[in-house]
Amino acid sequence: MIGKREIFNKMKPNFWQDPESAVRRAYCITDTTILEKAVDLGKGGSTAVTAILINCEKLVVANVGDSRAVICKNGVAKQLSVDHEPSSEREHIEGRGGFVSNFPGDVPRVDGQLAVARAFGDKSLKMHLSSEPHVVMETIDDDTEFIILASDGLWKVMSNQDAADAIKNIKDARSAARHLTEEALARNSSDDISCVVVKFN
C-alpha cells in the first residue's frame, strides 16, 4: 500500500501556487515509491489518471499510459488526457535504448512487451519508460455535465462519445459508473475496467 497521505503532503506546499508542478511531483514520488517497494508490490506497473477540482472552477487532470479522462459539456464529449502509445513516443523510447515492436496482428509494444509508453512501476522496463504525466487544466462552467475517469478496459470497446451518451440520463454518479462498467463487459472487454464518474450541478 502506497502512503497516499504522505504523497499528498509532499505535494501540498506549492500546490495552490503551481498545481501543475505539484501534480508532476506527486506522480514522480508515486513512481519512485512503487519502484522502491517492487519486492512487496511485484514487478508489474500501472497506468493512472487523476483529477483535482480547485474552487469548483478549475479542473487539473493528469495521466500516464492509456487511462483516460473525458469531460462532457452540453452533451459533447471531449478527451482531456493523452493515450501514451509506444508508436507516438518511439523516438523517446529509442533514445533511452529501447525499441518499439510492431508485429502483425498486435499493437505496438515497448521492448515487445508493454502496450503503453508511460506507466508507474514496471521495473524491468523502467530505463525505456517514462512516468512523466500529461497535465491539462480545464475550466468547469455551467455547461459542464460530468467527467469520466476510466482505464483502457472501457475505452477499448467504447468511444468517448459512446460513453458520454450512455450515462447522460443517469443522475447518480455511482450508478453511471456501474452502468459503464457493465456496458464494457457486455461488449466483451477483456482488459481491466476501472471507472469513476463525477457529476456536476
TrEMBL record:
It catalyses: O-phospho-L-seryl-[protein] + H2O = L-seryl-[protein] + phosphate; O-phospho-L-threonyl-[protein] + H2O = L-threonyl-[protein] + phosphate. Its EC number is 3.1.3.16. Residues 1-200 form the PPM-type phosphatase domain. SUPFAM superfamilies: PP2C-like. Signal peptide: none annotated. Keywords: Hydrolase, Magnesium, Manganese, Metal-binding, Protein phosphatase. GO terms for molecular function: metal ion binding; protein serine/threonine phosphatase activity. Belongs to the PP2C family. This is protein-serine/threonine phosphatase. It comes from Citrus clementina.
